[in-house]
Amino acid sequence: MTPSALPEPIRRLQAIDINSDNEATQLQKLAQAISRIADLPEPSPISVEAMPLSAKGGPMPSLKGWILRPGAHIGEKMKGVFRVGTIAAPDIARATTAGLDPNDSIYVRLYVEPPSGQYVNAMAQGAPASFFESDDIEGTIVIARLRLAGVFQGPGEEGRATPVIVIEEAKPRPE
Fold first, then answer.
1. Is 24 helix (H, G, I), strand (E, B) or coil?
2. Does position 28 have pLDDT exceeding 80, yes or no?
3. CATH number of the domain at 48-172, out of 2.40.30.170, 3.90.1150.10, 1.10.3210.10, 2.40.50.140?
4. Closest to 157 in 3D by CA, of 96, 72, 79, 91
5. 55-90 confidence digits (pLDDT tens)
6. How many CB atoms lie within 10 A of CB 108?
7. d(Cα 112, Cα 151) in Å, to the nearest integer?
8. SS3 sequence of 116-139
9. What is the pTM of this model?
């Protein structure tokens, strides 16, 4: 139904037309309307190359560089905003490569915010691991400091080197 087809006085209230062939467009229109009505700030888009929020000394690391050439970036750190995805037990070989105790570690998939479909597979130990063990953590937005701890080249990955990323610190993003 379109807003013009609604009866009075409903049509003058907060109605929007989200009719579209594409579900993503419908959801985007709805989110924009809610943001406008609630007077929320418009989120600014972020590219993978611009994702890091800080770096100390040397050139700014980039997530793209970590993924494409992990061996050239071992030891680099970055801070970013992520949506928490899957949480599970870590791969033993990857945890060992990162210098973590596999029995005291956790695997976390972090999606780059805003939602772009891009993600990083990371591991945490100690306090960061405890942070991610919360039952309601999946889907929340966090600020995390990451470190590229090593490179893993396992069987069945067609010889492709993959980054082994450690979450050094994580906290909820302030509202």
1. helix
2. no
3. 2.40.50.140
4. 91
5. 444 455 677 788 888 888 899 998 888 899 999 999
6. 28
7. 21
8. CCCEEEEEEECHHHHHHCCCCCCC
9. 0.64
